[in-house]
Amino acid sequence: MTTPQLSVVIPVYNEEAGLAALFARLYPALDALGVGYEVIFVNDGSRDRSAALLREQWERRPDVTRVVLFNANYGQHMAIVAGFERVRGERVVTLDADLQNPPEEIGTLLAAMDAGHDYVGGVRRTREDSLWRRVASKAMNRLRERLTHIRMTDQGCMLRAYSREIATAVAASREVSTYIPALAYTFAASPVEVEVAHEERAAGESKYSLYKLIRLNFDLVTGFSLVPLQLFSMFGMVVSAVALAAYVVVIVWRIFFAPGELGIRLLWDRDILAFFLVGLVVFGMGVIGEYVGRIYQQVRERPRYTVRAVLEAKDGAGEREQGG
Ligand code: UDP
Ligand code: MG
To answer: Pairing between strand 319-321 and 191-196?
Structure first.
C-alpha cells in the first residue's frame, strides 16, 4: 500500500444489514476523487456478521482497505480513536457506517481543506431524524456552546474532516470518555463548517438510546468545561448570602414590628424551600460525581480498548496487539 493522501475512518457496530450498500457507494465515490486513499473500518465488537463482511471487503480491496477488529464494544468514539492512531493520510475523514453521511460529500469537505482549513465540520442540510431528536439536540447545542466555547452547529453530524496533526493530537489525548469532534476542535487552528446532505439510515437501527444521548451530552459538558462546578459554588454562595439576609430581616421584624409574625409567615414555607434546596444539593453532588467519575476512569489507566486483530496488506493479516 503506497502512502495515501486521504484516510477515511468508519466505526462499525452491528451494521451487517447496511455494509454492502456502504461498500457499493463508498469506494466509487472515493475512486472518483482522484486522490490516493485508504479506508479504515473499526469493528466495535459487533455481535452480528459485520466483522466477517469487513474481512470479505478487505479481501476484495486490500490495496485501500484496513480493518481493525476490537475485542468488545468500546463505543463509537473509541473506535474512531483507534482509527486515528493508525491513519497514514495527510487528511482524515470520519463518517458513519449507516450511509446517513453520503460518501459523495467527502469532496465537499476536502474542498474546504483546500481553502486552508484544518478542521471541517459537516452540518446536515436537512436532518432525517425524528422531531424530538432535532429539538433536543438544538437545545443541547446552545447550552454546550455557552459552557464550553466549542462552536459546533451540528454536533450529531460525524461527517467531518481533520488534518493529520489534529487526528494525531486526538489520538494522543488519552481521554477515556470523549467526543471526537469537540476534542478535535480544541486543537484546530482554522475550523470551518460546510453543509452536507443527510439521509435516513440505509438499514439496521440507531445504536443510540435516549439514555446514551443524555450520557453523551453530560460527557460533552463535563469533558470540556468546569463551568457546572463553578456555577455550583456561585449558587451556594448566593444561597447562603440570601439566607443570612433573610435571617436578619426576620429577626429584626420579630423584635420591632410583629408579635403576630404574619407578614413573613405568608411567604415563608420552610418545607418547600427545604425540598428545593435538597434537590439542588443532590444535583450538585451528581455534578461533582460526574467529574470524580471522569477522574477515576482517567487515573485507572486501563487500556481504553483491546484489539483482536488488524487486517491490512502490509505485515500480513491477523496480527495481535494490545489496546491503546
Ligand atoms: N457505532 C459504534 N459503536 C457503538 C455505537 C455506534 O461504532 O457502540 C457506530 C455505528 O455503527 C455507526 C455510527 O457509530 O457507524 C453511528 O451510530 P448510529 O448510526 O447508531 O448513531 P445515530 O446516527 O443514530 O446517531
Ligand atoms: Mg446513524
So the answer is: unpaired
Give the other-Cβ count within 10 Å of 47's Cβ. 11
**pLDDT recorded at residue 317:** 43
- Between 55 and 125, the more confident residue is 55
Beta strands per DSSP E along the chain: 6-12, 37-43, 65-70, 91-94, 119-124, 160-163, 191-196, 307-311, 319-321
Query: Ligand 1, residues 13, 132, 212: which to mutate, most atoms within 8 A of Cβ?
Result: 13
Q: Give me the mean pLDDT over the 111-138 stretch.
A: 87
Task: Identify which has the larger pLDDT, 278 or 114.
Answer: 114
pLDDT average, residue stretch 28-49? 97
**In this structure, what are the phi and psi dihedrals at residue 80, rounded to the nearest 5 degrees?**
-65, -40
Distances from the Cα of 310 to the Cα of 49, 157, 236, angstroms: 17, 27, 52
For residues 64-90, give the mean pLDDT: 96
User: Which residue in 110, 29, 86 sits closest to 311, CA to CA?
Assistant: 86
Q: Is the minimum distance from the CB of 193 to ligand 1 under 6 angstroms?
A: no
Q: How confident is the model at residue 308 (pLDDT cuts 50, 70, 90)?
A: very high
pTM, two decimal places: 0.82
Burial class (CB in 10 A: 0-12, 13-18, 19+), 70: buried
Tell me the sheet residues that pair with 123. 195
The confidence score (pLDDT) of residue 262 equals 61
Do 162 and 195 form a contact (C-beta atoms < 8 A)? no
Contact criterion met (CB below 8 Å) for 196 and 213: no
Evaluate: CB of 15 within 6 angstroms of ligand 1.
yes
Q: Which three cell numbers stand for residue 54?
A: 469487513
Contact (CB, 8 A) for 20 and 52 = no
303 Cα to the center of ligand 2, angstroms: 27
Query: What residue's CA is closest to ligand 1, atom 23?
Result: 206
* 221 CA from centroid of ligand 2 (Å): 22
| 83, 38 contact by CB (below 8 A) | no
